[in-house]
């Protein structure tokens, strides 16, 4: 019997993917499989990497049952021609008898500067042997500092007459150009560019790439990212022109003279570029940045500032400035400038891009020439505008998340961010414009000075975030849960800005560590964010001081080294998330010493003789006030340090470090972690446990941490959990009273202790305080505060994700039953044990893991539950079905006893049947209990 299925081969080079999709017919063992209908899809462009041993991954996908890889062979060649001969002059792995299909390290000849590498793979599976995959590709970048020695950094280290360097700096964009002659037929050409703060690159008038706000931000004193582009199709034989615009970004800091003790500054924008051209005759030439480049700052972008907006004067446009033959009269010659201090390195994460467009839902007139545009959704990006008018007319666009009662913009929560774009018309024909080097967080736009009467058709919202694929879907029968999920998606996506920032609208936009510790795990179910968070862990490690301390913000654009366990400890939690969700042990190896050093720093400086960690900076940040009346006008910027919290996390981190050490062969460290953990646990209970059956002040967070971290002695667990439940049900009337810290452990701890029903109640409340309360008050993203509709505006973002806690994790792991097995991470084995909540009629979810798509869909049909499951190829699942015995599951004899897809069947003492499933699609029916 022939069964139709398909394989997908995916190249993974430290986070870069290129996929090859092809259907084929299943063959018998040893028989090649037909690949005649092969299709190729490039998910990202792995150009210019600097990793000497890239890691390769591939997926096997198909409808056939029980697909398991038994062996693989990888070929890597220096050309497509060699690879087409089934030869690997760089690496031939030979047939490797392993089921490993992710993170396979290249083990061939040394990779050289700017080398091209083409690879393919074939696999042997339980269903037969495949043909070779279609080739995939990566290229090496400029890997060594010395290779930039003949390339100069150019710029202009001064402001111009129309600029202002002050607390509210105004600095125009810088334009650079270079003409050159390519006197032969071109085979290949690649640009290697470091453009700081932000750049746009042009070749012969054509913008190169679809990236925006590039490159990703870093602490430029530590590292500077290189972007690489293949421009072979844009160059031509004869005269050519390169053009680069530099915006300010995080490099020329927006607030130059504002709290210099706190905010880092790096200097004026600058760039270094190499264009490598290879001709068909084999000769090569390099075009570099030097003093021959032309420069002007007197272009149409008069200022660009992430907090304050962009001003564009179309009368100053320079038609043809990035084309050959442009008259540079009035331009200056670029100056040599000091290079940044940071290490030059390849950017291994995707840049931002315009990921979607929104049309406004309405426009209303305030007075005279002022209008309010409503996008219908709190979004992050900018506005594209069409306008026709007279030369010199100005259109002002001011952005905000909400309106006041009189219909005016509410901007007090933006602090001193001006968030205003100004466009000056050149006049004549219809003009199209959108900014290049800013972004805004907004739902509403005040439009002033628009010629004539503006219409919703004149404007389009451009949604901007990292080029990251949405890999999760989630839906239930409950509309509140569904809307919270949608609001979460908008908030998470909008705050991906080359790093995870806290908010997109006010004068902050900082990568606070504490905002993402558990949230990153939930995000990973929704987004392919492993590359982003791997880069962010690098940012954190770079920011670590020699003594071991780690800041609260990384990259440390703000110098906050406050020393506490919860915010810097996010590093350990993100490392754990990346390992559990992707199976990538390299992230542990790369960061182990930094994590160990930080914990030693905290222990030496802040652990007392009784093993209590005495230093915490924030406590349970943003705990909701007891009532909405008490919350009205209240400041949220209140710190309540807690030794209980810092000591609990100290114990939790000892447990994590012991696990990390075991994963990477650092067994000698484990006894020290275990011994210290034992002392911390004893001290925690001696200090904080009350014999009445609670911890600390009997706050929800106090009891949650003790339960979640395994700090409670076995004979006290039920009493402590009862105290937690009583607080929720009696004192809080079914609501939470947790801040950022407690909410990270709330939903899972309740569920793991048998009260999924109470977790569900909290998840679906629409009264204060709750996520549903935000919906009731018009939120389309997640608020910074539980009382965000009435709080003092000094700290009141309407697009934060820190209060999501473990909610999204709970959606996937506990409602849908999609969870990575810690013993076999990366979803090599999936733990599927959902809570079939009485109040839910169905849950339908999916997650595209590194092995392929996992799906779980359960629905109640009267007194029966039908549960459909998809397990990806080369993976397994442990499925827990709430049934008295295996015979209660429909089609038992036909479906279970005789199926070779089911490796094991067990009945547990908890009243569940455990099935060990091979890959494939399943449908189970069983009675509700």
Low-confidence runs (pLDDT<50, min 5 residues)?
A: 1-44
- Amino- and carboxy-terminal Cα gap: 40 Å
Structural class: alpha+beta
Number of helices: 17
Total strand count, please? 48
Second rung of CATH, namely the architecture of the largest domain: Alpha/alpha barrel
Number of domains: 5
The best one-word shape is: globular
Instruction: State the CATH topology of the largest domain.
Output: Glycosyltransferase
Helix content: 10-25%
Largest sheet: 11 strands, mixed
- What proportion of the residues form beta strands (DSSP E)? 25-35%
| Average pLDDT | 92
CATH domain class name of the largest domain = Mainly Alpha
Describe the structure.
With 929 residues, this protein is α+β, with helices and mostly antiparallel strands. The protein has five domains: 4-139, Sandwich (Immunoglobulin-like); 145-349, Galactose-binding domain-like (Jelly Rolls, Sandwich), CATH 2.60.120; 354-466, Galactose-binding domain-like (Jelly Rolls), CATH 2.60.120.260; 510-816, Glycosyltransferase (Alpha/alpha barrel), CATH 1.50.10; 819-927, Maltose phosphorylase, domain 3 (Sandwich). It contains 17 helices and 48 strands. Strands 16, 22, 23, 27, 28, 29, 30, 33, 34, 35 and 36 form an eleven-stranded mixed sheet that branches. Strands 11, 13, 17, 19, 20, 25 and 26 form a seven-stranded mixed sheet that branches. Strand 22 (301-305) and strand 23 form a beta hairpin. The longest helix is centred in the middle third of the chain and has 21 residues, at 586-606. Mean pLDDT is 92; it is low at 1-44.
Can you give keywords for this protein?
7-stranded mixed β-sheet, 17 helices, Jelly Rolls, single chain, alpha+beta, Immunoglobulin-like, 11-stranded mixed β-sheet, disordered N terminus, 20% helix, 929 residues
